[in-house]
Structure formats: C-alpha cells, structure tokens
Amino acid sequence: MASPLKRMLIGKPLKSSEAGDQKLGKLKALAVLSSDALSSVAYGTEQILLVLITVGAAAMWYSLPIALCVLVLLFALSLSYRQIIYAYPQGGGAYVVSRENIGKNAGLVAGGSLLVDYMLTVAVSVSSGTDAIIAAIPSLYQFAVPLAIVLVIVVTIINLRGVTESATILAIPVYLFVFSMIVMIVTGLVKLAMGQDVTHETASVGTHVSGVTLILLLRAFASGSASLTGIEAISNAVPLFKDPKAKNASRTLIMMASILGFFFVGITLLAYFYGVVPELKSTVLSQIAENIFGRNFFYYFIQATTALILVLAANTGFSAFPLLAFNLSKDKYMPRMYLDKGDRLGYSNGIITLALGSILLIILFQGKTESLIPLYSVGVFIPFTLSQTGMIIKWVKEKPEGYMKKLSANLLGALISFTVLMVLFITRMSEVWPVFIFMPVMIYVFHRTRSHYAKLAPQLRIDEQMDLPAFEGNAVVICVSDTTKVVEGALRYAKSIGDTVIAVHVSLDRQEGKEFVERWNRIHPEVRIADLYSTYRSITEPLMKFIDTAQQKANQDNYSLTVLIPQFIPKKGWQNVLHNQTSLLIRTKLLFKKDVVVATYPYHLKE
User: Fold this and answer.
1) How far apart, in whole angstroms, are the C-alpha atoms of residue 124 and residue 311?
2) Mind telling me which residue stretches traverse the membrane in this protein (predicted)?
C-alpha cells in the first residue's frame, strides 16, 4: 500500500542518467531560490513598524530612513554573494567561505547557523502564509498551527518530486506574486501622487518624537533586516544551475536583489503614506491592499498570492538545506545518509529532516511569526558576518587585480551585518538566547561525528597483519516459539550450517513450557531444546542471558555462534500490523552483541 501511495505523491523513480535534466535555468531558479527573500517583504516592513509603534504612531516616519539603510545592506550583501558565487562555484556559500578562510570551527558555526536558519525559514514562511490566510478568513485563527503543519507537509511532498518539477509548480505563484506586488505598489504610488486615498494623518518626515532612541532605531533596523534573509541561498545552491553555473547564478542574484529592493522600499512608502499600523488579525500588507483596492477581487488576489509565496518561500530552505547538509556530510561532519539521492534525484533525507525540524519549531512557537523572527534573523546574520569576514581575508591574502573594490564591498557588508547581529543580541536577548545553547551543541555533534568517521576508517581497512580467528566449528542457536512449518524449515537450514544446533524457547507459563518441551522432544529428539521461564513476561531478557552463556561456551570451544530467527512473511505488507514484531526486537538487541552472527530464516505465506 505504501509503495503505490509513494509513487502517486512523488512520482516514478528517475534514472541517474537523467540528473542533467534536473538543473535550473534563471527564471525557474528565481522562483525556487528567491521565493524566501521576495516573500519576506510581506513581513519586513511590519517588523520595523512593530518596534516603532511601541513609541507611538508619530514614530512611523522613521521607517523611511531605516528602509534606506536596509537597502544599503542589501546592496552590499548582493555584491558580496555575487563574488562568493564566482569564487566558490561548487556551492556551500558561507560554510565553505568561512571554513577555507577563517577556520574549521568558523565554518561549522556558519554551517550550523544556516541549518537551523533553513528550518526557521520554513517555519517563518509557513507561519506568515498562515497569517495571510487568516487575515482574509479570520474564522481560521484557532486552527493556525494545524494549518501550518499541513502546509509544511504539502511543500515537502512538492520538493520530494524533484528540483525541476518543484520549480515548475512554484514558478506560477511566485510570478503571480511579483505581478500583484508591482500592480499594488505602482497603483498606490500613482494614487498618492494624484492626492487620492490618503485617509490617515501621518507625522511629517523629520518630526521630533519623544521616546525614540538610538537603541530603538537600531532594533527596528535589525528587525527590518529580516527582509534580507534568503539572499544567501543562491550562493549555497550554485550546483543546481544549468551551465554556465556561476554566470546564471550571479544573474539570478542580481534579478532577485533588484526586485526585493523595489518591493521593500515601495511597501514601506505605502505603509507610511497610508498611516498603516500593525494589527493582531490583519497584516500590514493586507491593510495596504485594502486601502488601495478595497475588499474587491484584487485585494483577495493579493492575499492569495501572498499566502502562496509565503508558504512556498519555504522552498528556498528545501532547496538549500539538503545541499548544505551534503557539503557538511562530504566533510564527515554529518551522517553519510545526507550524501544519498532519492528516487527523484533530490537529497530526500535532507528534505525530510528539514520538514520534521520545521514542524517541531511551529509547534514549539505556536506558529507565531513574531516569536520566530528574532531567532531567524540571528541565524542568518551569523553566517552573513562570517562569510563577509572570510572574503575579506581571502582578498587580503590573494590580492587579485582590482581586489580593493571587492574588499570594500565585503568590508561594508561585514560591518553592517556585525552591527545588526550585535543589536539583535543586545536588544532581543530574551528571545535569541537559545542560540547560545544549540550552537555549542551542534558544534560538539559535528566534531563527534567526524571523530567517529576518523576512528572507523582504520578499523575497516584491510592490512597484511590482520589476526582473524580460525573457527573450528559453528554453533547455531535457533529461537522457536512453537512447532510450525516456519521452525521446520529453519531447523533444516540450521543443521546445514551448524556443527551444533540448540533450540531455545521462552515460556511465560511453567505448565505450557513443560508441555512444549515434551512435544518438541517427540518431534525433534535429535535437537536439544532449552526452555527458559520468564518471570516478568519478557521474551528478550532471558533469551539474551542464554545467548551470553552460549557465546562464552562457543569462545571456549573456538566455535562461531550464529543465532537463527525464524520469521514468517505475510503476503500483503499491511498484514504485518496484525502480528507482533518480537523477531525484529530480538534482532535489534542481538546486533549490539559482539561476536554473534544474526540470521533470519524467512517463510513466505501464500495467502
């Protein structure tokens, strides 16, 4: 049942030779890798206003100079990541840059931050999309968390279908969102220029507002910089592009940065001139659209496309997380399963890991975007700062032609990114303190994983001085529950491979155990039976003790020890649910016993 369902959801497997078809052109890459950055305009301006409104509506005009500062940071980061694309076309972004230029631990900090940040990307995007849906349909407010979880599952399935297919699915809603934002911003600015629709009084630019401090403005700037999350994704995912990879990735980055800058500044201007303030059940973007169009078709069209792109913005995380996990796994800092491609030539294990982590975050934070944003921002500004610093070190060491221009761009980006990071730590410590717990834990796990692989290699390597034991025979312990056809077949096999065969049975009732032994001796007098009585109704504990004893005896006689487990296999997969899985539990426990060979004798049922 599972296999047809899997085929229906993610499609038929692709051949390895079809990998070249799974590369992206610029337009599809813009949809897949820029959806996070572009969608962040839906909450970027709102995050600035949420900070300023604590002083009063008169402070709203400060959003304009703050937006210009965010635009400067966007410009600096775009130049920097464009240079990273050309310098490191193999992908990896901040992780590779930091590792090669600053050091391994700096690389792991950048990589670990981005792994968590991509989980937060999905959680924030889906939560924001859910907010947009609720803004249009307020009756869904109480179902926010379940709705967000369902949306994560839908996006996960889309990504498991492969890069090209997910890009095709995503391209339509992304470009519909771009179209709707252009129409809204242009219409709103034209109406304002003609003196229409200004229904709210707004404090003039330059008005002195008591209570506005430098710390408050820096905090608003740091919150607004959340709009820049996602611009690093293209540098992480250069291998996904069609040839020439670096050139196509660079042009996609420029397109994304240009659109993002126009949207962010346009929405901030409209919010100021329309006097929009944040509300609990209505987003800033929703209020702007309502002011411009009223509650007509185009208002609902904007809400629908915004909700779609916010949900599908999670796709940026789904595209970049598996590639980053691949790079960390290749360097042996993460399990090797992240190197494996799935049926549709995507890194399925990375996709599934990301989905599970995101769902956990949504549940922990109850789908509240404002609670996720601070951690989200910290998670991306740590690698921002490290990657800029790494590029500065690279230019200083290598001094290529015209390096001073490149160094200046990276220096500006590093200074602003570091400033934003410090402001986040100083002003929002109560919200971002988990960083100081999960980052050291992640670095420790990375090092432990690499240490394990380093110790594993010499233990598996064949050398000329290997001293392997020469066994004089093989003792087979066969686990039996009753005298059945399954056991009969297993016994025949045990006799064919074993010099000594012993059957072991665990009884939960003394009388039943006695009757079983009598029955066994009548049918198989040639095979010794050991009946173990389990005082506490456990099958595995007395069995494990018996095998320990058998292992000691086998070692003394220089015999190998094989434990054979008979198991019948139902014709239909779902029928396994109708039977206990004792054999699976026994096998699992035995795998951790040294010098014990574990074998299964399968008996396939015909009906």
Assistant:
1) 9
2) 48-77, 108-128, 140-160, 172-194, 214-241, 253-277, 297-326, 347-367, 373-395, 407-426, 432-447
How many angstroms separate the CA atoms of 164 and 496, rounded? 53
As a whole number of angstroms, the distance between CA 341 and CA 343 comes to: 7
pLDDT at residue 48 tops 70: yes
Token couple for 465? 């001085």
CA 101 centroid distance within chain: 26
Q: DSSP string covering 48-89, please?
A: HHHHHTTT-GGGGGGHHHHHHHHHHHHHHHHHHHHHHHHH-T
Q: Which two tokens stand for residue 93?
A: 């972004």
Render pLDDT for 185-215 as a digit per residue (tens, 0 to 9): 998 888 888 876 655 556 677 677 787 888 8
- Which pLDDT score, from 0 to 100, does residue 461 have? 72
Percentage of the chain modeled with pLDDT above 70: 89
pLDDT of residue 563: 93
Collapsing DSSP to helix, strand or coil, 474 comes out as strand
Three-state DSSP state, 604: strand
Domain positions in the chain: 25-447, 473-604
Which pair of structure tokens corresponds to residue 406? 């490149």
* Closest to 321 (Cα-Cα) out of 91, 11, 78, 20: 91
Question: Residues near 296 by Cβ (< 8 Å), separated by ≥ 6?
Answer: none
Q: CA–CA separation, 82 vs 246, rounded Å?
A: 9
Question: For domain 25-447, which architecture applies?
Answer: Up-down Bundle (1.20)
Alpha-carbon gap, residue 377 to 393, rounded angstroms: 24
Say what the pTM is.
Answer: 0.72
For residue 58, how many other CB atoms are within 10 A of its CB?
18
Of 433, 442, 358, the residue nearest 124 (C-alpha) = 358
Cβ atoms of 43 and 283 closer than 8 Å: yes
- Can you tell me the distance from the alpha carbon of 20 to that of 89, in angstroms, rounded to the nearest whole number? 17
Sheet holding 473-479, edge to edge: 528-533, 500-507, 473-479, 559-569, 596-604
Give the dihedral sign, CA 189/190/192/197: negative
Residue 24, beta-bridge partner list: 241
Mean pLDDT confidence for 272-284: 78
Contact 499, 523 (CB under 8 A): no
Give the closest residue to 232 by CA, choosing from 397, 98, 61, 411. Answer: 98
**Which residues does 506 contact at the CB level (< 8 Å), separation at least 6?**
531, 532, 533, 534, 539, 542, 543
- Are 112 and 442 in contact, with CB atoms under 8 Å apart? yes
What tokens does 196 get? 């229409």
What is the pLDDT averaged over residues 363-379? 78
Other beta carbons within 10 angstroms of residue 41's beta carbon come to 26
Task: Decide yes or no: CATH 3.30.70.2740 for domain 473-604.
Answer: no
Tell me if 218 sits within 8 A of 423, measured CB to CB: yes
Query: What is the DSSP pairing of strand 473-479 with strand 559-569?
Result: parallel
Least confident span in 16-30, 101-115, 212-226, 413-427 = 16-30
Q: What are the pLDDT digits (tens) for 295-323?
A: 888 888 888 888 777 777 777 778 788 88
Decide if pLDDT at 1 tops 80. Answer: no
- The DSSP letter of residue 194 is T
Q: What angle do CA 404, 408, 412 make, to 5 degrees?
A: 170
CA–CA distance, 68 with 300 (Å, rounded to integer): 30
CA 330 to chain centre: 17
- Coil, strand or helix at 115: helix
